[in-house]
Amino acid sequence: MTYKLLTPGPLTTTMSVKETMLQDRCTWDDEYKALTQSIRQNLLEVALVSSDTYTAVLMQGSGSFTVESVLTTAVGAEDHILFITNGAYGERMTQIAQTIDLNYTVYAVPYNEVPTKEQVTQLLQQNDHITHVAMVHCETTTGILNPIEEMGSVVAAFNKVFIVDAMSSFGGVPIDFEKCHIDYLVSSANKCIEGVPGFGFVIAKRAVLQQTAHQARSVALDLYDQWRVMEIDGKWRFTSPTHVVAAFAQALQELQQEGGVEARYQRYKENNALLRKEMARYHFHPYIEPTYQSPIITTFLFPHAHFDFQAFYHEMKANGFVLYPGKLTEVDTFRVGNIGDVHKEDMQRLMLSVKKYMEVVQ
Ligand SMILES: *Cc1c(COP(=O)(O)O)cnc(C)c1O
Predict the structure, then answer these.
(1) Does the Cβ of 62 fall within 6 Å of ligand 1?
(2) In this structure, what CATH number is given to the domain that contains residue 276?
(3) Are 78 and 183 contained in the same domain?
(4) pTM of the prediction?
(5) What is the CATH number of the domain that holds 250?
(6) 335 is in an annotated binding site
(7) Alpha carbon distance 273, 290 (integer Å)
(8) Is the domain of 205 the same as that of 333?
(9) Burial (CB count <10 Å: 0-12, 13-18, 19+), residue 283
(10) Is 195 touching ligand 1 by the criterion CB < 6 Å?
């Protein structure tokens, strides 16, 4: 049975994206290297940035590998990074920093709140040894959308390097690189671009990346070296996930056919609005307030103390939908994702299944 994955990635991809993987490709062949180069150029176009100022680098592994590659490469031994966190992915960056022994400070915000400009300004004023600031755009833990434009302008005012984990938002939520003052943006193949998992990518300011030679504490995750080699002719340093790369090129084409980031954002937003409105009928209320709610994924509170999520999950799965468990410790929640090849009809079908279940089981 095939399911619609209502998860934040890996997600449901189109048949045409999957079919691209039926051909084997050679990593050192010119055609493949050209494919890599066209993806890199395409990513800059999706980001609406110029190749004079920014460059795109692809990195093997899941999204976290790419986050780690940015942190290990961008933050030097004498540097100090501030992490602004309100969820598990922000905390993962902290864990990486601790493991690779970076100098860091954490500004932790409750999971259902966003950081304030005042607090970050004060932190940067009082700690002029801070050189880098990193945060997550859409915290997939809860679905909260962080104000990166507001934060970026504070970070830029203090002349710090700004790193954004936009893993679950890039390609599905418009991001203005200039207004956000982004130096490094990280995302991966299997989120809003709607490809399959296997690599991540970084859109970095050339002038900033260029200063990071020999800084990485890792060979495989050295972003500078990966970029240096890829920049020559599109060759990946080590074996690349060829099938995944081809699928990603197709996914990028389909993003363009849909009408680009703005059109995809509209689809996600409409499906998310439909979902939240209909779910409320059955007393499923979101954990995040509407102002901060992303159109990517929604965390729902259990409708009552005796709600049996396992039973609900299995019933939805039997109806063709895979939901996502919650990731919060203090409250009982589950999550429903909107990204992937999921359309209004799918949401309507899901809601029919929810209705049937809730009417019988309630
Ligand atoms: C998916 C995701 C990641 C990366 O997770 P992986 O499991 O390593 O792919 C990082 N940050 C955010 C916000 C994410 O949504």
Answers:
(1) yes
(2) 3.90.1150.10
(3) yes
(4) 0.97
(5) 3.40.640.10
(6) yes
(7) 10
(8) no
(9) middle
(10) no
